[in-house]
Amino acid sequence: MQSSLSESELDMASLLVDTLNLEDEAPEDIAPEAPLFGADEEGLGLDSIDALEIAQAIAQKYGVHIRADDARNKEIFRSLRSLTEFVSANRDG
């Protein structure tokens, strides 16, 4: 299944796969609008521990800090696309 990922979305998908050791997922096969969390069959089924690991990896790679108590987290982590857009909008340089 080939999805239409932008270069930055593919980069973020690769970060997710590497950070969470998602051996069964190819970065290019992650649907950009599929939910990242929950038991939805379309999504990745991630949990809150995964969110912490992702936030740490994003901070290390992109210098963007996502606070655990940010009221926007549900929207930020809604999908690969929303996460990528948040990081792109908040990156330095």
Summarize this, please?
The protein is an all-alpha fold and 93 residues long. It has helices spanning 7-20, 48-62, 73-76, 80-90.
Task: Write a structural description.
The chain is mainly α. The protein has four helices and no strands. Helix 1 packs across helix 2 and helix 1 crosses helix 4. It is globular.
Topology of this protein?
Blueprint: H1 7-20, H2 48-62, H3 73-76, H4 80-90
Helix pairs in contact: 1-2, 1-4
The tally of beta strands, per DSSP, is: 0
Helix share bin: 40-55%
Shape: globular
Work out the radius of gyration.
Answer: 12 Å
Uncertain spans, ≥5 residues at pLDDT below 50? none
> Average pLDDT value?
91
Distance between the termini: 33 Å
Biggest sheet features: none
What fraction of residues sit in β-strands? under 5%
Given helix and strand content, the structural type is mainly alpha
- The multimeric state of the shown protein is single chain
Task: Figure out the total of helices.
Answer: 4
Q: Give the SSE string.
A: HHHH
What are the main properties of this structure?
93 residues, mainly alpha, globular
